[in-house]
Write a structure and sequence with these properties.
Length: about 130
């Protein structure tokens, strides 16, 4: 059975952080989908307008942290007549379970979509022990 959802406009959510940022700009929570395959989790995150070299992905203390910074210079002097899109940086954190192999995390960026592949820990294959 297919999921028949209608398309809906989603409001951009501003990141509420306990700590203070050193960059005087707004941070938003990027829209994210997570899919599971047999050997990995796929995290697909929208980060429009972010350059490849402006994304930091770090794993620290079982937390995967993604920060993506917009080059705001592109928007200097613009006075939009109408806007539905707020310009700002992106930040998101995920707690990693013991099923994720920290050494098998890969990232790709294409057309404003960041895809993280979180490889699962290889489990020992069950086997039958023969009695000699």
């Amino acid at each position: 059975m297919t999921d028949a959802r209608s398309l809906e406009v989603q409001e951009k959510k501003e990141l509420v952080s306990k700590g203070e940022k050193t960059v005087p700009a707004r941070y938003y929570v990027p829209t994210t989908d997570i899919y599971e395959t047999a050997d990995a989790l796929k995290v697909v995150m929208e980060v429009p307008g972010v350059a490849r070299d402006a994304i930091d992905i770090k794993v620290e203390d079982d937390t995967l942290r993604v920060e993506a910074r917009i080059d705001t210079a592109k928007y200097d002097g613009m006075e939009p007549l109408y806007t539905e899109y707020n310009v700002g940086h992106f930040a998101r954190s995920f707690s990693l379970s013991h099923h994720i192999d920290r050494q098998r995390i890969a990232a790709a960026l294409e057309d404003g979509v960041l895809t993280l592949t979180l490889g699962k820990v290889q489990q020992a294959e069950p086997r039958r022990i023969e009695i000699q």
